[in-house]
Sequence to fold (390 residues):
Amino acid sequence: MSDYQVQIFDTTLRDGEQVPGCKLNTDQKIKIAKQLDFLGVDVIEAGFPVSSPGDFKSVDAIAKIVQNATVCGLTRSVENDIKIAAEALKYAVKPRIHTGIGTSDSHIKHKFKSTREDILERAFKAVSYAKSFVEDVEFYAEDAGRTDNSYLAQVCEAAIKAGATVLNIPDTTGYCLPHEYGAKIKYLKENVKGIEKAILSCHCHNDLGLATANSIEGVINGARQIECTINGIGERAGNTALEEVVMILKQHPYLNLETNINTEMLYGISQLVSESMGIYTQPNKAIVGANAFAHSSGIHQDGVIKNRETYEIINPKDVGVTESAIVLTARSGRAALAYRAKNVGYELTKLQLDDVYSNFLKFADMKKEINDTDIHEIIETSSIFNQIIA
Ligand code: KIV
Ligand code: ZN
Fold:
């Protein structure tokens, strides 16, 4: 792997599927896993095998069909979890066990009623045990975002000594600010002995709307894996959105960081996940929302019709959206109306456009949005209709 390559670890089928109401059956998971593999993700976290027989079955089925990506299963630092995950992953071409434990004082005190020393030992043992089944073991330090950096460095060191290939630094509660998360990654890069043997991974939650920014700060500071989900779905306010981090790295080439993602598949897979989970994507969602390439104010429409780049930083085709949309509302201008009229077959002269436009405004004040059928009606009911040749 080149130093510029950022691995994309997709956890739609694990962290994403934990969302209430998003449960998928094995067939739906297989369909999504196949698309993720075509999309070019490096790792598919297929589930948490010990959590239910259904999850075990899905991880096992995905492990059998995925051809390119590493298939990963989550565990706690518990022997039985690890044994069951290894069993579910046994047919994977590239299996990975993802094991870990909470490392913040809050988790140590309230969840485990334990001590830092004990957690360090449990982390070491879990990774060592996972290593007895597979070569590729990722360790997560849950709530790393709120874990004291020097203790976190000790835990990471222990995980590396036990053979961890990837160290996941989750901002589980979405609390960190981007500069803090970036500094945490930098600190680990500079203070963990043996860090060159492992990849640091960003796993950020979106409680303060900072998951994407934090993940990007993470890779700028030396992490080389981002854990994310399609449409940013996930616990509470969600996880880092895959489509966002991928497009940020693509649109900012001077960062010198790239992914293997076939970006033209992003819109299609976003639709597939949203339909399969029955979870609607907000229209203003970056990259894949219905309005991400829609222009409705007159000033913007005029600019985009003259040159798309005046108001678009991404070519919609690059993410699988056929074209930018010029939406007609009462805020639209003549340029947009002429453009849409031409699309449905009317080439209007300047004079005709003036007349049709005043009729259009009457319609537009009554409706939220003017569609193609309305355009025909507007033209047919305008006073100069008999002079217009369709
Ligand atoms: O957010 C988190 O800490 C997690 C871990 C279990 C990896 O999802
Ligand atoms: Zn998570």
